[in-house]
Each structure stands twice: as structure tokens, then as C-alpha cells.
Amino acid sequence: MNGWIGKYLAKPHLVLSLVVLMAIIGIIGYFKLPINLYPDTDHPQITVITVEPGAAAADVEAKVSRTIEKELATLGNVLRVSSTSKDEVSVVNVEFDYQKSLDAAATDVADSLNKIAGQLPGDIRTPQIYKISQASQPTVVLALSPRPGSHLDMVQVRQLAENEIKEELLRVPGIAQTEVFGGYEPELNIAVDPDALARYGLTIGDVAGALNANNVNVPDGLIIKQGSQFLLKTQGEFIKPSDAANIVVAHRQTGDIYLRDVAQVKRGMVEPQSAYRGNGHQAVGMSILRAPTGVTMDGVNAIERYLPTLRRHYPDIKFEISDTQGELIRGNVNNMRDALRDAILLTVLVVFLFLGNMRITMLAAISIPFTYLITFAVMWLMGYEFNMVTLTGIIVAVGMLLDDAIVVLENIARHYEAYPDKLREAVVGGTEEVMLAIFSGTYATAMVLVPIIFIGGYVQTVMRPLSLSLSIALVASYIVSVTVIPIAAPLMLKAKFKPNGIERAALLFDKTIIGSIRDFFVAAVGMALKHRLVFLLVGIIAFGASIRQMPLIGRDLQPSMDTGIMKIDFESATDTSLSETNQIAKQMEKYVLQTPGLESVSTIIGSEPGIVSFGSGKLPQSGNMTVRLVDRFHRPESIWQIEENLRQKFSTIPGLKYVNVYDFGATAMSSIKAPVDVMISGPDRSVLDRIGEQVYQGMLQVPGLTTVSRSWSYDKKEVIFTANKERCALYEISPLAVSRQIAEAVRGLSASVYRIDQEDGIGFVVQYPENKRDEAAKLEDMLIQTFKGPIPLSSLGTLTYKHAPTLYTRQALQNTLDIYGYREKAAITHLDEGVQKALNKIKLPAGYSISQEGDLKQMTASFGALGAAMGIGLILLYFSLVPAFNSFMHPLTIMSAIPLGVIGAAWSLLADGKHSSMAGFMGMILLAGIVVKNSILLIDFIIEARAKGSTVNQAIVDSVRIRTRPILMTACGTAVGMVPIALEWAVGLERLSPLAVVAIGGLMVSTFLTLIYVPILFTLFEDAKRVFKNRFTVEKKSFLA
User: Fold this and answer.
1) What transmembrane ranges does the database entry give (predicted)?
2) Residues 92-122: tens digit of each pLDDT
3) Which residues contact 773 (CB under 8 A, 6 or more apart)?
């Protein structure tokens, strides 16, 4: 009565109040905890986008991308610097390790760009810095289009989206940013007549200069008059676009030449480099992003609530949701909550079958809500969220939570049966007797999880939430077991136990089935003790066979999952126009729209500089689709079957160069471009192209790869004009002036901006009419204005036609070409075997290298970290058991149960058709903590029996006879609690189900083998100790003699 429990029961109010208070906070936390699908596993990334108008891709790469790369590569904590360059646009991405915060990374990048500003071309636009994180992925994408019968066209819809709707959405709480995408940008075309320009001796540059000089509002300074201060400015901006027609372009002796004499002013549309399609039709896309610290579901819910308001404000615009994270997250969390409910029910049912006592079972079950509410409270206070990983940890904990409460209750009940008139003493004595034992079990499990929390890198980012949520639940379970259970126990135990019909059936099950199992193991361990070496040899063979078949299972970083979301990347032929690519996308959508269970499809073609949420750096010939289906519980085919059907249909579409169809989450991180990514590095891109084609053809033969594609091709057509300096000098024109006139004729020239109140301005572009631009493309006959009159371009130099890369990609300051491979469910290690066979046939020239940049690279690092974490965990576990048992040998006996778990884990993965993955490795670490608890029960009893005078063999047999039932109950209760995870009862649980498969298989096998092999090893260690002791005694006597 002098122990802690006695004092607590005498005055329970403080501790009980704290427990209840935490439970109340837990209720609040349950409703306040943010909801997400998965932890943000991406490294901090910063993207720098720089636009150099009119620059060719090669020049952008040489003068912009390389300069920025070199500087950013010198920053601290940088993992990788890569770039993509295309005509006019440079995209440089820098990836930092997890120790670098996103804000600090952005600051460092901004400082670096300021440092090299003078080294960059003078005509570039200011480089834009973008923070890339989970928050930069759209929470919702809206497709906007004119309603049938509306007076609006697509250009007007885009203008409304950018100037009004965007601002309105930013006022909605939970929305941090919106981006508009999809062409249809308005433009004021100054369509010049090349014949009129030639007649007056003018160029497009002369017309653009006149526009710039006449369409201005210029502040002229301050004047002071009679003590008052006035701002003086010159106002000359056009009131309406047609005013531009009346400006004077040039003065001649014959009179002034007006713009209307050489050109027409027309409203038009910017030559599109991008297009957007929503749910199968042309649209303007609007991506809605949350704040970096915001909650995805808050943003989704806010938009869904605000959509009716938007539809009322803009009745002529059709608003559709073409992509959203909301349905997936809602479905996953709801499924996980259902799985948690089912896990609790299954565990309680199993415990009841073993106990046969409804009152004790229900009393033990009371600990579950208290434990979980405390867990939710701590998670909320620590800033965690509900996601697939944290909820998996909570579900895994179910069986272990009841274990602590049952141990306390059974011990109290045993004491009460011995002293029925001393209930209080029974509660105190029964609780205090097992407090240290259950603490040791909780401590042992926590010990193997602790290294995961601090191991660092990708493993920590993914698995730390699981380890923490599980550890918090286990600690909370212990607290509830020694505080709430002792208070509630007397209420249940006062009444005499009279089993009802259900209880009698459970008791009969315990007596017959469990009793038979117990008798079997008593006989088996008796036989094993007589034939120790035979049994030991069989165990070693079984362990060796399990390890040997691991390569057959294959290894993966993260298993594929059917979330109902497909990604489709496609690329058309290099000389395909945007409108032709759009038509190809339309044909692809025709097949997608026939898919049963389709909810939405969002199609992006090309890219727009600075619009990161829709992708950046893509060509007008490339695009991607996001296809959302109903979840797998409500459709007949798996996502992989649907993907294969679509691949076959897409193969019939002419003009498609590549098409990759894969499931959402196909790679572990967004920075990993494909499950298999073979990167070739070297100086000469033509050599990279040749090697890349060999790798591409080899990977096409690799079993398990569904599609193979390249990051770029060497088939972009280019025309190079080489100026003849002597001829240029003869006609008194510089090569630079020739270049400008070529650019003006082909592309036109941007001039000033027409300002509209409260809207973004519309730019003037001076260019030839479309039919004349086609004529200008006949470069040899293009007329160049010189001081000696118009001269054909062919008279000033030579034209050369050649091929070049479609994109210029670099990584680690080297030119690169990536060959991507996609899969369905094949293990990464199995794919790598085929890829390596293909690569071994390729002879690389000096200065060129091939590396794996896909999931394999991250998997190697992650498995290494997991192995280190497990090693550290086992060391911590061993040294925590040494003082508990006051022995260096008994902890080894206890931990010998861990290899027995490996046998079950390996064969369960093989039987279930799953690969060894990071989740499976985590299951093995968790299994180590669980099986040790069972081993402790056996060894602890044997040691106590030996101390009371029993022989070793008798103590072992008695231990197996008495401990079989609680060990089986613990194992079965823990295993059935993980059944919903193993059977993937939630959307996306394929990613974590190997954890449960390993834990269940390993737990079941190790439980049975523990009852035989741990006693055998105990006797062997005892024999070794006795031999060592005898030898030491003999040597000591010899030394003294």
C-alpha cells in the first residue's frame, strides 16, 4: 500500500483530472487536426525561371542557364542543380537537403542571382524565383469556358479570369495564390504591309519605335507655384486602340507617313504556346493553391463552398472542377477511420475469445478511447496531421493497446480471486506487480522505433509520423492502464462472474482450441529439449531458405497504389504545331472519356513562363493529363488494367511520339522523374543522342517496363544564317541589324502597352499578316532594308539547315539525356536487372557516364538508412534489457526471437505477392519490438522458476504451459488489429500494407517458433555459461596453485 498505485488510489483526483483533461483536448484535436493524404516528402526546391525574348534554346542554355547553375551550385546544403532550356525560356531547379528551410533556400538563391546579375544577358526579363513544395501543387483546378449562347469568347474568359475572378478567389480564406493558364491572351496586332514598308523605306522596328514614342504617360517632375507643389507630367497614352492608326511613323519630303498608311490595327490573340482542356473541351485553366503553412482540405472546402457564388457572379461562364485533391484525401481518411473502427472491433473480439469474460473485455476496451484521445491531443499540440501514415501508426497500435490493459486486469482479477474480501489490496497489488513488466514491453517496442525518428533523410520524413504516432499511443496506453484501469476495475469485479451463453462458448473455445495448442507446444518443447541440435539445424535451414528467396520477392522503395488517379504524359512529333498537338490530345480524351467511373480529366499542353503549378519548361508538342476515377471499391477494373487498355488505344493515334500512362504516386518524390531514370552525361549532345538511342532500344526489351521515353530528341529543325561581313559592309548594314530584321519579319516586334483601367494592359505587336509571315519564312527571298535599298537575304550570307535537341537539359553542370521507364507493379530491383543487362552492352566513349537517377537511387539510400536504424534500435534494445535481467546473456536469448520473425516476414511477402519495400522494412523493425515482448514473457518466467528451485527443463516446460495463452492472445490481438491495413481497406493503403503483411506473417510464425526455439537457445546459453564458469574456475585454481 506504500507504492505509487496505493498513494494514487488514495488521492486519484489530480492524475485522473489530467487524464480526463487530455482526453478533452483530444476531442478538440480530433476535429482540429489537419487532414492530408501523405507527408510532404519532397526536398526543399527552388525554381528560377528566366525569359530572354527571341533567344534560341542553345543561347539560353549557354548564356543564362549555365551562368545561373554555376552560381547556385556553390550554395550550402545543395543536393542537385539541374536545368532545362528551350527557346526564350530557362528553367533552373536547385534541390536542397532536408536541413535547409524553404524560406532560407529562397533567400540564398535570390542573393546569388543578385550577385551574377551583371553576367547575364542585358535583354532578359528579371529572373523569377519560385518555392516548390507540396503547397505549389494545385488543391483544385477549375476549367472555365463560355456557356452555350454566351456572348463571351475564350479571350474574354481569360481576361475575366486574370483581372476579376483571380482577385475574387484570393479573398477567399484558405486560398493563397491562383494561376491562369491556357493561351487566349489578348493582343493588339499592328499588321504591317511589307510592300508599303519597302515603298517608304521603313522597317518593323521604325513602326514599333513610333508606337513607343507616342503611347506614353511620362512624369516630368515637380514645380512650385505660389507656395504649392504640383506634379507635371506628359500624358499621351492612347484612349482607344484605334488611336494608334493616326500616329506619324516617319516624315518625308512628300509628307508625313501615318501608321494607317503602312499597317492596320486589329484586336487579336497572342501566338499561343500553351493550351488547356477541362473534361474534354477547350477551356481556360485556373489552379488554386493553398498557403505553404495552410491545409489542403481547407482550401478544397473553401473553393467548393464558393463555387455557387462564382456561378452567380459570372452567369456566362461555365465553371467545372477538372482536378482536385479533395476527393482522394476525403476518401482515404474516411476509409482509414473505418479501418480503425474495424481493427478495434476485431481486436476486442479476439481478446474476448481468449478471456471468455465480457466484463473484463469491455473494461479493457475502455482504455482504447482514452488512449486515442490522449494520442490525438499530443499530435495536435505537436503540430501533426491526420494522414495515411499517422493513421496507419494508430491502427497498428490497436492490438498493443489492449495488451497492457488486459495484463493489468488479469493480474488484478487473479489477486482478487485469491483474496475476495480485499478488493483494494487486489487492485493495488495486481497493478504494482506488473507495472514494471508492461513498462519494459512498451519501452522495448519504443526502443526500436526511436532511431527512425532521428535517422534523417527521406526515411525519417516518411516514417517519423508513423513512429511518433505509434509511440505516443503506446505511452498513452501505459498511462491509461495504470491510472484509469485500476479506478474502473473494482466496478467490474465486485459482482461475481457468472458466464452467459456467449461467454460459455468463448470459454469452451479457450479450453478446447487454445488448450490443444498449449498441449501441443508443451509436447513439442519437451521433444525439442531432447533433440536440440536437430531442431536448431532445422531452424537455421528455414532461416537460410527465407533469406535465399528474398531476391525472388524483389525490392521497392514504395509500392504502387491505386488511388483512382492516372497521369498521362505525351509528346507529338517535333514539327507538330500547338493546334495539331491539341487535336491529338482531343483524340486521346475521346478514349479517356469512355473509361467507366471517370470523374474528371485535366489536360495541359505546352507551358507558360512563370506558371509553375501547370508545369514549366515544356514544349508546345508535349502535354500531360490528370485523370480522376471513382475509387477502386466502386469500379470493376484496377487502375493498372485501365492504364493498359488506354495504352493500347493510344497506340492507334497517329502523330504520337511518346505516351506514358502511369498511376499517381508512381515515384516516391516529385523530383524523381520516373521509376526508372537512366541519365547519360557528357559534353557533346550528338554523342548523348547516339548513346541515348542505344539505351532507349535496350530498355524497350526490359520485362516489366510498360513504356519508355526520352527527355529530348535530336530532331528539331533549325536554320542558321551566317552573315558575309564583306557583303554586309558593301551594303552598309551590320550583321546585328540583319538579325533584327529577320526576327521582326518572322516573329514581329513587341511595342508599347495599351492600358485599361483596373486591368492588365494589352500589348501591341508589330508584325506581318499571317499570310505574309508565311512568305517571310522563305528566307532566301526575304528583303532586308539597307542604306542602298532592299536586298535579298541570300545576298548577305548563307543559310544552313540542321537538326538540334528539342530541349537542352543539364544536371551537376553537365549536359544530360534521360531515358525514362515506367512500370505497373514490377519490383525496382527486378527492373534494374534487365536495365543493367541492356547497359552492359553499351560501350561508352571517354568523358561520358551513365547513372541511375530514379527510385533505385533513393531506395539504396533509404534501405541503408533503415538498416542503420534497425541496427541502432537493436543495440539500444539489448542494452536496455541487460540491466532489466542483470545479465549480458539473457538479452541475447530474448532477442533470438527476432530472426524467427524474419522467416514469417519473408514467406508472407512472397505468399501475398508483395515486394520488400520501405514499409515492409519498417514492419520488420516494428516486429522486432513486438516479438521481444513475447520472448520476455517466457524468459522472465523461466528465470523466476529457476530461482524458486526448478530445474532448467521443468522451468521451460512450465513456462510454455503457462505463457502460451497470453503470448497467443497478444500475438493474435496485435495481428488482427493490422488486418485492415494488410487487406488494404483504404484508398492508397497499398503503399503501407507491406508493413502489416510483414508484421502479421512474422508475428504468427515467430510466436509459434518462439515457444520452441527460445527455450532451446536458453538451454544452450546456460550450458555455455556453465562450461565457461567451470573452465574459469579450473584456470583460477591452476593459477593460484
Assistant:
1) 12-31, 339-356, 363-382, 388-413, 434-458, 470-493, 533-551, 859-879, 891-909, 921-943, 964-983, 995-1021
2) 999 999 889 999 999 999 999 999 999 999 8
3) 745, 746, 767
- Evaluate whether 475 touches 377 at the Cβ level (below 8 Å): no
Q: What is the pLDDT of residue 882?
A: 86
- Which of 132, 161, 178 terminates a domain? The answer is 132
Same domain flag for 376 and 494: yes
Overall average pLDDT of the 45-59 stretch: 90
Same domain for 868 and 775: no
Q: Which of 783, 804, 825 is the last residue of a domain?
A: 804
Residues 50 and 30 in one domain: no
CATH of the domain at 219: 3.30.2090.10
| pLDDT over 50 at 1, yes or no | no
Pairwise CA distance, residues 73 & 821, whole Å:
28
Does residue 1038 carry a pLDDT above 70? Answer: no
Q: Which residue carries 527571341 as its cell?
A: 54
Average pLDDT (584-603) is 94
Does 974 share its domain with 899? yes
d(C-alpha 465, C-alpha 477), whole Å: 18
The total of other beta-carbon atoms located within 10 Å of residue 453's CB is 17
Q: What is the CATH number of the domain that holds 99?
A: 3.30.70.1430
Closest to 1016 measured CA to CA, from 666, 535, 551 = 535
Give the separation between CA 1026 and CA 1028, rounded to whole angstroms: 5
- Integer Cα distance of 632 and 488 in angstroms: 44
- Specify whether the CB–CB gap between 215 and 207 falls below 8 A: no
Report yes or no: 72 and 114 within 8 Å, Cβ to Cβ.
no
Structural domains counted in the chain: 3
Nearest to 616 by CA among 123, 124, 130, 26: 130
Q: Are residues 519 and 412 in the same domain?
A: yes
| Confidence (pLDDT) at 1039 | 47
Burial (CB < 10 A; 0-12, 13-18, 19+), residue 754, is: buried
* Measured CA angle at 815 (ends 809, 818), to 5 deg: 60
What's the CA gap between 910 and 784, in Å, rounded? 73
H-run or E-run covering 1007: helix 993-1040
CA–CA separation, 667 vs 669, rounded Å?
Answer: 6
For residue 943, being part of any structural domain is answered with yes
Same domain? For 29 and 61 the reply is: no
User: H-helix or E-strand containing 962?
Assistant: helix 952-977
pLDDT at 1034 over 70: no
Nearest Cα neighbor of 667 from 839, 458, 851 is 458
Q: Report d(CA 616, CA 756) in Å as an integer.
A: 29
Residues written for the chain: 1041
Range with lowest mean pLDDT among 828-832, 902-906, 934-938, 1015-1019: 934-938
pLDDT > 70: percent of the chain: 96
Does residue 669 lie in a domain region?
no
Query: What tens digit of pLDDT does each residue of 186-222 get?
Result: 888 888 988 888 888 888 889 999 998 888 877 767 7
Give this prediction's pTM: 0.86
Question: Is the CB of residue 778 less than 8 Å from the CB of residue 645?
Answer: no
Q: Quick one: average pLDDT of 594-600?
A: 93
* 32 and 47 share one domain: no
pLDDT in tens, 505-551: 888 887 888 888 888 989 988 898 888 889 889 989 988 888 888 88
DSSP 3-state of 788: coil
Q: Is 480 within the bounds of a domain? A: yes
Residue range(s) defining the domain that contains residue 61: 43-132
> Residue 692's closest CA among 839, 833, 857, 828?
839
186-192 and 759-767: which strand pairing? Answer: parallel
Amino acid (1-letter code) at residue 880: S
661 within some domain: no
Same domain, 9 and 75: no
Q: How many helices (H) and strands (E) does the chain have?
A: 35, 30
Classify 24 as helix, strand or coil: helix
